[in-house]
Amino acid sequence: MIADWGLWEWILAAACALIIGISKTGLAGLGMLAIVMFANLMPAKLSSGFVLPMLIMGDCVAVAAYRREAQWGMLLRLFPWTGLGVLCGYFAMGRFSDREAGFFIGAIILVFIAVHVWRQRRAAQQRAARPAAGEGREGGTTGEAAEPEHGLWFVATFGIMAGFTTLVANAAGPIMAIYLLAMRLPKMQFMGTAAYFYLLMNCFKVPFMIDLGLINWASAKGNLLLAPAVLIGTVIGRAILHRINQRLFENIALLLSVAAGLNLLYRSWSG
């Protein structure tokens, strides 16, 4: 497949690799664009294996850049559920078509976004109501917590879906973006936590991808040729992150997640 690529295919692949690098250190969620573009260069399942080593390259740079920002307590709660999701994805591979997988994952992403927006609006209403609830009472205000609570069901749901989607379609980016946005992390902690999560999960996936025949010597050679573009992208991404504020960062991450979900639904319907 890669051996048949012409000049334009390699240019498109290099652009995808550059986008992967930018997404790992700067614009969370942008990586889904590269994954969609790669899926136009080769069958979707093959592209999931081809892209994985480049994702790991970007993860390594992101970990080196943001290693002090990771929130390990949050990660340790998530990892067992994500591992379970990866196993579910491994056993599910081959049992449904790319179209079915795209529709399911796209729908899940949009549902998660809707729930996230609803929870944030409810929290904002609670914050607005707190001063009124405490009016006329000595010692301050009463009312519920300003931020939504994140119980076991919340962590388990996001963890399992992140693991499942990352193996089936390398589509955990939007799921994790929504999860980390819900945790209200500053942008540097967001990127540091995401960097370790993706690195460990992507490395965990490698044996499964090799067993499924989706990573081989031919794909590895292509990855080596595209590695410089990934590394250049990580430099660009880090520069972008330092130049945008927290609100813009969160809005970009949310909008890219919406775009990813809609794109998956569109491709599943039009395919």
What does this structure look like?
There is one protein chain. This protein has one domain (2-270). Helix content is 79%, strand content 0%. It has 271 residues and is an all-alpha fold. Mean pLDDT is 85; it is low at 136-147. The protein is built from ten helices and no strands. Belongs to the 4-toluene sulfonate uptake permease (TSUP) (TC 2.A.102) family. InterPro entries: TM_pro_TauE-like, TSUP. This is Probable membrane transporter protein. Keywords: Cell membrane, Membrane, Transmembrane, Transmembrane helix, Transport.
Which tags fit this structure?
single chain; 271 residues; mainly alpha; globular; cell membrane; TSUP; transmembrane
Distance between the termini: 21 Å
User: Domains counted in the coordinates: how many?
Assistant: 1
Low confidence ranges: 136-147
Please tell me how large the radius of gyration is: 20 Å
The computed structural class is: mainly alpha
Helix content: over 70%
**What's the total helix number?**
10
Query: What sort of overall outline do the alpha carbons produce when their principal axes are compared?
Result: globular
Biggest beta sheet attributes = none
Membrane topology: Multi-pass membrane protein
Protein name: Probable membrane transporter protein
Family: Belongs to the 4-toluene sulfonate uptake permease (TSUP) (TC 2.A.102) family.
Transmembrane segments: 12-39, 46-66, 72-92, 101-118, 152-182, 194-218, 224-241, 248-266
